[in-house]
Write a structure and sequence with these properties.
- With about 160 residues, this protein is mainly alpha-helical.
- The protein has a single domain, classed as Tetratricopeptide repeat domain (Serine Threonine Protein Phosphatase 5, Tetratricopeptide repeat).
- It is built from eight helices and no strands.
- Helix 3 runs antiparallel to helix 4 and helix 7 packs antiparallel against helix 8.
């Protein structure tokens, strides 16, 4: 009886292990993009917007996310990609806010010029953040009327 019991337990364990393998979960990471060097090349040589967006995802897990600034400048200046204008603003202000402290006047003016250009190109994120800046009076003179107008326009472009 004992050997039969042991064989039965072994059979149950083997069957349950086999069933677990069949129901295993596939883990997908957020950084499921093409190689970073390939993305950089596509951005620099072709202005590939999909590669640019993938690079943003790839840099979420990188130590040197500030490097994204370079590619944002290229996509904005060379290819006039509306989303890149906001990213230039965001990278510039984030670098100062997180690492330096106070943003200097020249860099602030540069950052504001990029977010304004993004808003001119109807980038919803640029419009929304520019509206917030006007409402708060951050980096630019406070203007609640313009701020509310931009927020409303940004929401409309986003569909809510």
């Amino acid at each position: 009886m004992r050997p039969t019991y042991i064989l039965l337990v072994i059979a149950i364990v083997l069957i349950s292990c086999k069933q677990r393998k069949e129901h295993s979960l596939e883990v997908i990471t957020i950084n499921n993009t093409r190689p970073i060097n390939e993305l950089k090349e596509l951005i620099l040589l072709k202005g590939d917007t999909v590669a640019y967006d993938e690079l943003a995802i790839a840099y979420l897990n990188e130590k040197y996310e500030e490097e994204y600034l370079i590619y944002s400048i290229v996509m904005a200046n060379r290819y006039n990609y509306h989303r890149a204008y906001f990213q230039v603003y965001d990278c510039l202000t984030s670098i100062f806010e997180h690492h330096v402290g106070v943003i200097d006047e020249e860099t602030k003016a540069l950052a504001i010029s990029y977010i304004k250009r993004g808003a001119e190109l109807k980038d919803p994120e640029s419009i929304k953040y520019l509206g917030d800046l006007y409402l708060q009076g951050k980096y630019i003179p406070k203007d609640t009327i313009l701020g509310r107008k931009l927020e409303k326009e940004g929401r409309k472009l986003c569909g809510f």
